[in-house]
Amino acid sequence: MIQILVRYCTLFILTLLVLTIISFSLAYLFPGDTLENLTGLVPQNEIQRAALEKQFKLDQSYAFQFFYYVGNLLTGDWGYSFTSGLPLREEVGIAMPATIELATYAMLMALFVGIPLGYYAGIRCYSTSDHLINSTSITTYSFPVFWFALLLILIFSLQLDVAPLSGRISLIYDIEPVTGFILFDVLLSDIENKSLALKDALSHLALPTFAIGAVTTASMIRITRRSVIDVKHRPYIAAAVSRGLSSWQIFFRHILRNALLPILPLMAIQITTLITNAMIVETLFSWPGIGNWLIQAIYQRDYPALRIGMMAVSTVVVTLTILVDLFNRLIDPSREKYERATV
């Protein structure tokens, strides 16, 4: 157990080190002058340039600049946005929870809809209902997420007018951000008509969450169905049938858990897909998440925001992926034996 934790901590630190090196190098890879990319200022003379270079340690070696950059990251001094003039730490702290909120609700949709449908399709494999579920999941999985989101906007927002087109909540509600999750912030607020504000926030969440979650749900259905079918053809299932166990006993005693174990490691892969899709959908629904924030930074050439945004998104993805994989390793220690046997 200790060896596994040490291994994962080492992997986490080394991955973050590589990401930090890439993030640091972006200041020199962006087009234009490095000093202007970092400060947003154009030196008027050599004296001003020398003063700015000394302030941002550009007159030192690359190694010293890198350690200075790492120190600023660790202390929370991430710089300022050229566009808003606000600290990047505050802007990322506002935008990142909005993205995580969409990805979380989409993952819950995939878990509570995709896995039960996948189990049902696997148990009833090659039946009419299985073909219907499988065909629907394959079709949904084939949709590009941006096209599917535009289709939802066209139907439910523009034609039927049953869902808002953009934003997290109507402007008539003044919700102070506390947790960064709009539903929790509404519940924690002291505004009047809290139920109406909560209903309005849910209506804004519906379309972007469904646009992201539909693709992930379709993928989860296919993965679960395949896992259940594989388990059904194992020798211990045939032995359970020969002992006279009912279909429900076989399902709950043998199929349920054994089919779930291969699914859990694949959830770590879905995290990257979820956050990527969330960042794409945010730009279509004007959702104030990290994806929409980065797109605006690209348009306005806000290079410090791009550098910190890349670092923040990568850190969240790496952290969640490693935590999910570590959780899978803890609940299924047999994976260690099999992985070592296949090396």
TrEMBL record:
InterPro entries: MetI-like, MetI-like_sf
UniProt keyword annotation of Transmembrane present: yes
UniProt subcellular location: Cell inner membrane; Cell membrane
Alphabetized SUPFAM superfamilies for the sequence: MetI-like
Residues that span the membrane, as ranges: 12-30, 62-81, 102-121, 141-159, 171-189, 201-224, 259-285, 305-327
Entry keyword set: Cell inner membrane, Cell membrane, Membrane, Transmembrane, Transmembrane helix, Transport
Topology relative to the membrane: Multi-pass membrane protein
GO cellular component annotations of the record: plasma membrane
Entry's Gene Ontology molecular function annotations: dipeptide transmembrane transporter activity
Keyword Cell inner membrane: yes
Domain ABC transmembrane type-1: 96-328
Family: Belongs to the binding-protein-dependent transport system permease family. OppBC subfamily.
Name this polypeptide is given: Peptide ABC transporter permease
